[in-house]
What does this fold into?
Amino acid sequence: MAKKAPVSQRERLVLLDKFKPGTPTAAQAIELLQQMIRVDTTNPPGNEIALARMLEGWVRSRGHGFVRTTILESEPGRANLIIDIPGTDPGSNPSWGFMSHLDVVPAEGTWTHPPFSGELVQAAHDMFVWGRGAMDIKYLGAANLTAAFTLLDEGFRPKGNIKILLCADEEQGGHKGLEWLAKNHLDAIKVDCCLNEGGGFKLPIKDDFVIQTGEKGVFWTKLTIHGNGGHGSMPPDYDTTAIYKAARMLAKLKRYKAPLVIGKEYIATFRAISLPNAIKGLLKVKWLLRGLLAIAEGITGIKLRQVVLPLASNSIAVTNFHSGIKENSISPDASIILDIRTLPGVGRDQVNAMIRDAIGDDLYGQVEVEPLDNQACTTTATDSVYYTTIARITNEIYPGANIVPLLSQGSTDSKFFRERGIFAYGFCPCIKDDDLTYDDLLSLAHNADERISITNLMLGVDFAYRVMKQA
It folds into this structure.
């Protein structure tokens, strides 16, 4: 008897009929996402005001007069759009926020389709909307808006208040977006629980989906190195130049391996994940972890060290190096930018100590350390009614789904809510498309050829619709 082909993740979905690809609602969501991508909100400079005004016009065109829109600018052009859907009984029911960001990273590299075209392209198994921001994260904004106004068109009114937030500047740390709003207009954005990007991805393990319940701290740091300069035709002792001192630092940073920490967040992840207990036990043994992941990578072909090790350690990434401006001049200065991500309880003092540990006392004594950003790790509890609601609705859409809490290595605007005691979860369900590998999915955001499948766009619409409907 021929072996049955495995059921794909897409075939497992139980979407509401009105949200299936090919429906009028899907066409509306696609068109809205395309319009959003075609507004260039590359940050810097951002210019989110253009997209905020376009979306405000879209909301008003839907004809629900009780829905309020507010645009707040942290500075000219840096706009945040707040859409308020008032509840019928807000005093007795929790309020929900549905958040995304308007800005995108620069569209570098060579693209198959122009990055701000929003082209709809047929692949072997699905159609995809292409463009910068398609995956990160304009599709989430389009999904939230489509879900909300589908409900309103059906005559629905929530019991609790609903806020849809589309914010500026997330890609540069959120300082001109949600952080500014939280400091200056907290009442305008305050909710009991907010859903955001950062989780929802289907893992390549049974029926597991990750939910972001926290995110590592972000400590961007500039190292400035000084040394002997001069004319390129008469180089000084290489070891005394800033460039070669920096080269030694870069070599040490490349070799540096931060100590592993098996903390409660790491333990919670591997308690929930659908792996055999024996493997879970081994993954908690620090001295075995790196070797086990290397072996598993060879078997699965998935970059597991890149995913798992950041959950159990602080990390240092070199993101920029600069020295000199002239071909025939040896600059007396060089600079290195570090993107440092930290576990709970780590502050600037510990970060500086980690830099010293990485490059050594001698080089550390010759460098100027300049903090560019100091954002500590934030977490949200999992024993809440909101967490339970997310898990239940995910099971409705993908029967058998298992929710796995994750301390994300990436940074999102959720931290500004968590810092103020507001529940914030990163979750918008997203499955592996039949046309893409897991490595493809991991690399779509911030890279050339960014795109989102129509299945995942409508999965986001369906999920938001069901959460809003119970609000």
